[in-house]
């Protein structure tokens, strides 16, 4: 019987595995559920550097016109309004990781393929890294200064207008105490702010409906679930039941429910709080975040070309005794910030520790 096989270093195998690796990595992330090509996506994929040279993508924002206009036969000439525009820059860089076997004798002792396990290991590594970078960016986690974990660029702390603490009127994470736990009231405040900021935070389009997305740490979810005041967890469950079959959007995958037009998504990768003076992590605080459209931007280089493949390299060492495989991607990921203001995110820090 004739069979088709793609061995180590086969050119077709390398291309197939490169594409397969990123597809499988994305499936294992929350990041992928929110990635899209248009401006209504929570994470917008910008393709400029996948088509041409360059290491930066400039993202523009035009503010709404605010002038009063001219009535009747009043003179319009000389009363025109200047456009106000701002820009943000996404930096892309290469990130790689690799696995290498000790040699053929070591491989002889084990019942699995080093090449297959390298694929699985690198898939999990990339999935974890993309999610880590996404949450460090949108949470403004400046305690993490290693850009390998922040989408290849520094994080930016939330500005005052886009920061709503569980502690009333608090302006810094270090002021949060054990009584300042997450509640639906905090989310209500965030929704009100999102609709009244300038510019307002646009909701994400989900099956034609406008929705915000709020990412919460499991400890914050626990605080909401166990709140004893009226109108807390029960309201979420009612909304979840009512909309259980209303959409098949991946945005709802893993969602714990919906409240006040906000899809609530749980993730253990929601960042810790950060001390505003020392930039040290505050482990008793988690910084949930409400997101709208274009909360973050993602771009790739020409090596990948599209966000469904990356660079996969296989090499043999020591007279072909050892197999090494590497997976790399030229990419960038960041929270959108225009005119020194968060464009589509609101940080919601609260006290959050492991329940006892």
Question: Concise description?
Answer:
With 356 residues, this protein is an alpha+beta fold. The chain is built from seven helices and 17 strands.
Written description of the protein model:
The protein has helices spanning 11-27, 48-51, 104-108, 114-138, 184-196, 218-225, 233-242, and strands at residues 35-36, 43-46, 56-62, 85-91, 93-100, 204-206, 209-216, 255-259, 262-266, 272-274, 281-291, 296-300, 311-317, 322-335, 337-338, 341-342, 345-351. With 356 residues, the chain is α+β, with helices and mostly antiparallel strands. The protein folds into 2 domains: 11-64 and 83-139 and 296-337, Major capsid protein gp5 fold, CATH 3.30.2400; 158-295 and 341-351. A hairpin with a 6-residue loop joins β10 (272-274) and β11. It is globular, with a radius of gyration of 23 Å. The mean pLDDT is 86.
What are the defining features of this structure?
356 residues, alpha+beta, Major capsid protein gp5 fold, 2 domains
Which helices and strands appear, and what pairs or packs with what?
Blueprint: H1 11-27, E1 35-36, E2 43-46, H2 48-51, E3 56-62, E4 85-91, E5 93-100, H3 104-108, H4 114-138, H5 184-196, E6 204-206, E7 209-216, H6 218-225, H7 233-242, E8 255-259, E9 262-266, E10 272-274, E11 281-291, E12 296-300, E13 311-317, E14 322-335, E15 337-338, E16 341-342, E17 345-351
Parallel strand pairs: 1-2, 2-12, 7-9
Antiparallel strand pairs: 3-4, 5-14, 6-7, 7-11, 8-9, 10-11, 11-17, 12-14, 13-14, 15-16
Helix pairs in contact: 1-4
């Amino acid at each position: 019987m004739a069979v088709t096989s793609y061995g180590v270093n086969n050119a077709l195998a390398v291309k197939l595995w490169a594409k397969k690796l990123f597809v499988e990595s994305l499936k294992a992330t929350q990041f992928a559920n929110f990635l899209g090509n248009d401006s209504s996506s929570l994470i917008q994929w910008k393709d400029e550097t996948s088509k041409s040279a360059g290491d930066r993508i400039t993202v523009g924002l035009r503010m709404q016109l605010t002038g009063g206009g001219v009535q009747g036969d009043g003179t319009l000439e000389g009363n025109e309004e200047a456009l106000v525009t701002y820009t943000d820059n996404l930096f892309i860089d290469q990130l790689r990781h690799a696995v290498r076997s000790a040699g053929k004798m070591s491989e002889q002792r084990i019942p699995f393929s080093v090449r297959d396990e390298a694929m699985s290991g690198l898939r999990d590594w990339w999935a974890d890294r993309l999610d880590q970078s996404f949450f460090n960016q949108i949470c403004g986690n400046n305690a993490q200064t290693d850009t390998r974990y922040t989408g290849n660029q520094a994080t930016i702390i939330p500005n005052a207008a886009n920061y709503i603490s569980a502690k009333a009127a608090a302006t810094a994470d270090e002021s949060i105490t054990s009584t300042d736990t997450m509640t639906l009231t905090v989310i209500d405040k965030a929704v009100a702010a999102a609709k009244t900021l300038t510019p307002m935070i646009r909701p994400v389009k989900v099956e034609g409906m406008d929705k915000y997305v709020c990412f919460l740490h499991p400890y914050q979810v626990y605080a909401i679930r166990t709140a004893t005041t009226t109108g807390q967890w029960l309201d979420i469950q009612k909304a979840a039941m009512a909309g259980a079959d209303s959409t098949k959007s991946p945005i709802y995958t893993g969602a714990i429910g919906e409240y006040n037009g906000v899809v609530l998504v749980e993730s253990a990768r929601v960042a810790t709080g950060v001390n505003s003076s020392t930039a040290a992590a505050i482990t008793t605080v988690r910084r949930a975040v409400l997101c709208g459209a274009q909360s973050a931007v993602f771009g790739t280089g020409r090596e990948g070309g599209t966000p469904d493949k990356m660079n996969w390299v296989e090499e043999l060492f020591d007279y072909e005794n050892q197999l090494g495989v590497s997976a790399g991607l030229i990419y960038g990921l960041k929270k959108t910030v225009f005119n020194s203001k968060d464009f589509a995110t609101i940080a919601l820090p609260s006290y959050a520790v492991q329940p006892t």
